[in-house]
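URGENT: need a sanity check before tomorrow's submission.

F., can you look over the Protein kinase domain-containing protein record below? I want to be sure the sequence and structure line up before it goes out.
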Amino acid sequence: MDWVRGESVGRGTFATVHLVLPKGSSNSTLFPSPTAVKSSEVSTSYSLKNERHVLDCLGSCQQIIRCFGDDYTFENSHEYYNLFLEYASAGTLADQAKFHGGRIPEQNIRGYTRSIVEGEEQSRLECRGTPLFMSPESVNNGEYESAADIWALGCAVVEMVTGKPAWSLEKDSSMWSLLLRIGGGEESPMIPQDLSKEGKDFVEKCFVKDPRKRWTAEMLLSHPFIEEVKNGNEASPRNHFDFNDWVSSVSRSTPSSPEFEESCQRNFDAYSFSGVDRLRQLVTVEVPVTWSESDSWINVR
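Structure tokens as predicted:
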């Protein structure tokens, strides 16, 4: 793959994130636009490689960031491991909370929650999480089944509503004291009072102590809190290939195969984000837009 590292869009503990600029027309289909690349030095790339492994195990799911492969590069006398990912232009839930003053509006929470539940319903990967999102059975018995993900979902909903972790923590409290609270006794995270009746009931279904009685992702999709939420993440068409009823007039001369379909999906699926997200990109909060001749305008005829 021939590509150029573009604008920096983020930096974390283990990696930096840049936009990808493909070099040459032959590489344009290898990188669905826009694509991001997460990079770290090979010596510290374990976490990034593990992320690739997790995404591979999750497989194809509309609600989960897609992975487009990886490679190695030598830059400034250092070897880097690069992971190519679908670029989420709207940022993280933390970014959305900050944008809304610390708390995400409930109508938005309903949509985000449904997307999470749909992703959970499609994926069957067992992953260990951080202590703040661990379920009682994970703490007590080391169980990391789908029910544990539902508990973590409840924690995420509470944090979206309040802007704070689901478990209230004392200033000097330790991780062990938190695990004791989660695994011992009948204490559960507090359900926000300013959440709607449907929202409170939804979270209660997630925080059932007995994992056998906790609602599944399939059951939650029918809960009133998210049942009526329409998928707002469908992309508005950018060209005639994006319309659902578009049918190619060119017949395929070779028989279809799973490998071929997978290749087509990887090469021709356009990056999807909503019309709302596209409009948001045109709005600047901190810096006003200046439409001057120096802004790299091009003539369109």
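My own read: The beta strands are 3-11, 16-22, 35-41, 67-75, 78-86. Residues 90 and 280 are 8 Å apart (CA to CA). If you see anything odd, call me.
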